[in-house]
Amino acid sequence: ASPPLARRNETCQKTSVAILGAGLTGITAAQALSNQSVSDFIILEYNGDIGGRVAHTTFGADKHGKPYVVELGANWVQGLGSEGGPENPIWTLAKKWNISNTYSNYSSIQTFNASGYADYSQLLDDFEDYYATFEQDAGYILTENLQDRSVRSGLSLAGWKPKKNMEAQAVEWWEFDWEYAYSPEQSSQEFAVVNYNTTFYQWSDANNFVVDQRGFNAFIKGEASEFLAKNDSRLRLNTIVKDITYSDSGVTIYNKDGSCVDADYAICTFSVGVLQNDVVEFDPPLPDWKKEAIDSFSMGTYTKLFLQFPPDKVFWNTSYQFLLYASPTTRGYYPVWQSLDLDGFIPDSGILFVTVVQDQSYRVESQDDEQTKEEVLAVLREMYGPENVPVPTSFMYPRWSKEPWAFGSYSNWPPGTTLEMHQNLRANLDRLYFAGEATSPEYFGFLQAAYYEGKNAGSLIASCVKGNCTGEKNYDVLHGTTKSSEYTMANGWSVSSFLTWGF
Ligand SMILES: Cc1cc2nc3c(=O)[nH]c(=O)nc-3n(C[C@H](O)[C@H](O)[C@H](O)COP(=O)(O)OP(=O)(O)OC[C@H]3O[C@@H](n4cnc5c(N)ncnc54)[C@H](O)[C@@H]3O)c2cc1C
After folding, report:
1. How much of the chain is helix, strand and coil, in % rounded to 5?
2. Same domain, yes or no, for 73 and 29?
3. Looking at the predicted structure, is the pLDDT value of residue 276 above 60?
4. Is residue 448 domain-shared with residue 324, that is, in the same domain?
5. Rounded average pLDDT over 448-468
6. The pLDDT value given to residue 2
7. Are residues 199 and 327 located together in one domain of the fold?
8. One domain for residues 450 and 345
């Protein structure tokens, strides 16, 4: 390898800071730089628009033939905040940009099995009783530096054992997999509870569902408009990064279109999915501690499948927001249904959607739309009777794990993986910094993760540009557990995970 200095490429466009990706993390990082008077940056983005995984599309049509807008990615503001208490920054921004949204009422749920309506809602309360013990146990694991375990073992030890009861399995899926996009077997008890508490106990347990017909990313565009001019040359859309060459003197980024950018510092905001799929080459190759961290965290897939029925033939009870279906054979088979044909959502639209995750997502992603539509309709016929389910006028779903700019939906924390390992995902390599939804040890998976991590990376680099650089900590040797003294800002830990405020 040539010495680092020789790597600076004289023919590339020069900038102080290159921001790789224009999702929420990238835009928030650019905003933090702007706020600290660093305006010499370039944002490189794969897609033709900003927002990343906050992505929408048009679907179906109203009675005038005008298509509706539905969200393929992020859909809720999660954990809003309470009067006089702290507030989720995403909620603050949603209000600032008048994003249309409606309270998601998780008690507004009807339960079904293969024979139609069947009231097993008592199981929802049962689960929550066991969960109270489970979350307390997670607290002991964290504060006493005990061995972490899977959510499955934790729930079992707390007394929740759904076993072959498919209604209990459906309830468990609704309570867990639907949020984490992973099964209890594949998730950490300790950090799933941290993730839940830092959002829902710090702020509040309320989630609001976004139905804004401009698209949810209107709040990201709004924020960007405060520091980027219209057609600002610092935002380079439709630019695919292929190779990142980094050293202690700078970072050079080579793009698929043959262009390159030579930056003093760079922030890579690509998803764990993108990093795991080796579509971007790093030069020099990533050190073992970084590679191990990338391969140790997981990228979940969350798929919403949309159907539009003739609005005058809506056959489900539109006084419920949620319908839960327990397949008699397969856990996670088209379990959670949401009606958009409700006041506050998209009334008179005839739109219903169902969500699957992980293995069921991969399965539907590998099928064509027709085959999947038949499966979905077969479930609806079990729930409502074959004579009551008309032919849908539109059907559509995204294939998140095949998107070359995301390779999945959002990250998750596997059992037995420590905060030290996580910090290695987050830590910089010379002048190349990493930030994104996945680099937050507390809010991972949520929009608030991207917001805080973007802000943090932008601020760190603004200080670097001003000659006051502090790199981030990394661990060459991992210790297998995490001492309580390590839950600090240096490892990305910003609030106590056992603080309760909201309720
Ligand atoms: C289906 C789904 C549902 C979700 N639901 C919710 C929810 O309800 N509430 C919530 O809070 N969060 C939700 N999330 C999570 C939320 O969307 C993410 O946490 C957040 O948007 C991540 O932002 P980011 O900037 O870190 O990453 P991204 O949005 O992925 O931004 C990274 C950017 O990098 C770009 N990029 C990637 N590769 C390259 C390359 N080679 N060259 C150039 N650019 C590249 C991408 O195009 C992208 O724009 C959901 C996500 C999905 C997918």
Report:
1. 35, 20, 45
2. no
3. yes
4. no
5. 97
6. 42
7. yes
8. no
